[in-house]
Amino acid sequence: MQIDTYSHFCHCGMENIHYYIEKKNIQGSILQGAEHSALVEALNEKGEKVKGPYSITIIVQDINDNAPKFDQQKYHGVVRQNSRPGKPFMYVHATDRDDPTTPNGQLSYSILHHFPNPYNQMLFQIDNVTGAISTNEKGFRVLNPQKQENFLLVVTVKDLAGMSENALTSNTDVNITVKENLWKAPPRINIKENSTEPHPISITQVRWNEPGANYELMQRERLSRFPFIIDQNGTIYVTEPLDREEKELYSFFATAKDEEGKELDRPLPIIVLVEDINDNPPVCKNVLTIFEVQENEGLGSNIGTLHATDMDKEDTLNSRLQFRIVDQNPNIPIDNLFIIQQEAGTFQLSSSSLYKGLVSNYSLKVEVTDKVFTTLCDVKINVIDINDQIPIFEKSDYGNWTIPENTPIGEVILEIQATDADEPFTGSSQIIYQIEEGDQNKIFIIETDPKTNRGFVKINKVLDFEMSPAYNLTVKATNPEPLVDTVQYNSSSVAYFRVTVTDVNEAPVFSRNTYIGYVYENVPVGTLVMNVTANDPEGDKYTLKSDTRNWLRIDTSSGEIYIAAPLDWEEERAYIVQVTATEETKESQSSTAVLTLHIKDVNDNPPRLAKDNFLFFCHPLHGGERAEIVATDDDEQMYAPEFTFSLGDGENIKSTWEISRINGTHAYLSPKHTNLEEKYYSIPLIINDNGKPPLERNVNLQVKICRCSDDKRCFIEAEHHHGLPSTGMAVGILLGILRLNKIQRSSAKESDKLR
Length: 755
Fold this sequence. Notes:
This is Cadherin 17. It comes from Pelusios castaneus. Pfam families: Cadherin. One of its GO terms (molecular function) is beta-catenin binding. Keywords: Calcium, Cell adhesion, Cell membrane, Glycoprotein, Membrane, Repeat, Transmembrane, Transmembrane helix. By secondary structure, the protein is mainly β. 5% of the residues lie in helices and 43% in strands. It contains three helices and 54 strands. The strands form 16 sheets. The chain has a four-stranded mixed sheet. It has a four-stranded mixed sheet with strand order 6-13-12-9, with no helix packed on it. Strand 51 (657-661) and strand 52 form a beta hairpin. The longest helix has 28 residues, at 727-754. The radius of gyration is 49 Å and the shape is elongated. Residues 1-15, 17-21, 23-30 and 719-755 have low confidence and may be disordered.
């Protein structure tokens, strides 16, 4: 064995000698990191032992003399369009012959080049530890095989964990083919209702880009019965016949999940439209449809329309209805006395041969068909006397009537009566009473008893003595059926009466029960908010109740409400008070309305840290460390907040630290180099919001560079007590433990190789 360099450590007078050998230009089989033991004796010329034996331990230390190598010269991978960012679709792997327990054998992967680069930024990313290649956010959005199907990545691997300029490197080519995303929503599915085929029936399929996905269906709306299932091939089935009249459109989602139940991508919308078939018969709207026709109606006159419905889809041939008269009873004076419009169902006279004295009514049967189903509807046509008599009042003047203004709505104040000599219970004899003059605001209404034709005058709206203390009313009696041409209404169909309204002492009445106002929280004191008014002839005095924060004042005479003190949106966003109007009379009646004052926020709170402003980094620094900073704002956020983070001035602050933005509320603090001392650092941080006007907060971040435990927790130094190990002793003990662990690991590796 030839050794060019080694270090020699000897304890003179002791029987242990350790040699530390750097693995450089060594001839012979010496394993890096391994230990070799030997016993050495000193002999004289006679071969007699003079000294010894001495135990010698030789420990071989690794140097970085092997470059990493990829397992393949070229790699090939396939990625689907819209592949999730960060989800690996392939791996590259390299090995290094140096000691993997040292930085010499620790590898770091990165993407060196990207061909082509149509967006001037990377579309792929690689895990620097595992070599996993995935799309990044940009690639997730823009990768499209129709635009660019193939990419070449030049991937570099470095030893020394990629943290040194002296690291040894190796490169490989990675050819990536972009394929169309299979995870697509299928087109709308049309299913005919009431299918008689055996169920379940396959209706469509969804596919994830890779095998092994678990498929599920999610309802968009909660249905008591959900007639769809999906199997593990992504095939969707309908499990039973569907009825369009029950539900015409189904909308739900299909999801693909991994083994842990996490969704692999966004759910796909599934739309199922149930197509109509002609499976419903026409239905007559009424069991018996009754029309009336005057005996003097002429040829072609419209009598009425027969209404029928069909539950099949509207405006389709399945719900198209056609009408036909199949029977008329009696057939006097002629058959086919009536005709019906085939599509509309409207009856007309085919002859002017109606005589009430001969036949007072006709019964007809009408066939209604949708070309598949047929229904018979019964129709009765009553022949009525012509309207040649007018209503006549029993008296023309009903006198004077006095009522208080608080008479309730609906109360009857007067009954009137007219008679008509036409045939009873027909449109010719039915009487309608109308107030022709004296009631422009329709304060009164007259209802008719259909059996007696008696009229009841009622209060229709609230009376108001101050607005109208008296009414002179003219009432006219008419029929719903028009009079014959030779007869006209005259004074016999007109009556008169007068109503006097008496005053009642009333409580004030606000114009509204609820008042709503909007103001900004920085509105000046003394600003007029609004004017509330109550209607009361006696006059009112206004006061405020429930003004718990004393933010408002009211003018007791006018009802004008003003700002009395500064408002604060952070304290109250909807300030609710009661406004009372009280009569200035002995009775002192009062009414109350509610004022809701919505306070709008202004930017009067600077941003602040949402978390503790104490951060730490583990010593020694290796590079790439960063700590998250989160800011918030107590003002109302109409949109997502946008904060700006920057470092303040200070000695070596910007040369030692840097801030990088994550999003509108988060940022990273990172050290710029690794040679920071183990101590506390106070870092001035400036946070600005984007309000109007923008506000700023200065924060002193407390950052500690400290030694950490294995779980990345900062050591807290304990006070020194007599009888406990000193710092030096503790370090020595710790190094001894580490040394023992290393020897144990090396021995274990040798044992594994021997096995």
